[in-house]
Amino acid sequence: MSILVVGSVAFDSVETPFGKVEEALGGSGTFFSTSASFFTDVQLVAVVGEDFPDSHLEFLKSRNVDIEGLSVHPGSTFRWTGRYGYDLNEAQTLDTQLNVFETFRPQLPESYRDAEYVFLANIDPELQLEVLSQVRQPKLVVCDTMNFWISGKREALLATLAKVDILMINEGEARQLADEANLIKAAKVIIAAGPRTLVIKRGEYGALMFSEHSIFAAPAYPLEAVFDPTGAGDTFAGGFMGYLAASQNHTEASIRQAIIFGSVMASFAVEDFSLDRMRSLDYQEIEERFRRFKLLTEFDGLG
Ligand code: AMP
pTM to 2 decimals? Predict the structure, then answer.
């Protein structure tokens, strides 16, 4: 089953302690689509400027991402500049230029409106709502956001949250959204605002899932070399939702498996800058790391 995603397609300039890139391919929609494309078909809704090179469009097409909903508008593509210190869990945003996203009003192609799986990647919550209102009968709506929108567009974000099934945000964002320092209490506040499941991403410490009656914890895959965490969250979401859409099963057991697939995909993404690790990745490597992940967390019945 295919997934409809709205998110940013961007030029990212990123500095980490291990190197830097200028204007590399990035954006929440790009990372998500690429990751999910290893599991299922993806339909992308976004906008780029006239400065966006054909080679990037070709890359998305090579991953089988449907780009009928990717508009090209006069002006410049969205740009994000960020920096990471030795604590790779927290990006410091140095600059955000919305550019063509400032005036973008998404019009979904007819072929996108019957989407059953919808991912509202990190983007202006007003755009998330506009996209959602054009989808006829979604079965599962998953959403991401960030501090930029939690503080800048809180009302619109709360309106979006009322309509989503699963929210995926990082630890700091959960605290900020709920205005509560304790994560367990923060999760209760957020679940009361709409989503029935909350997934909190904790960088190298893994992920926590909260639903009304249970909590699930997954570690991150231990890696010796982490080069660039940019896009890890969106890549996690791509693996998570790609797995759910491919299996068409939304039980808690399936959501737990999806979290591990998300963690596996994110672990690959951080091994190189931009989307470079995704370019050489194949499904066998994903399965192999999923298997190792199981061993990593096995502690019962080992004799
Ligand atoms: P993450 O998965 O959280 O590391 O997301 C990183 C991606 O989010 C980068 O590729 C950026 O281009 C994109 N991004 C950063 N800020 C924003 C924003 N305000 N709206 C949409 N996308 C953003």
Answer: 0.96
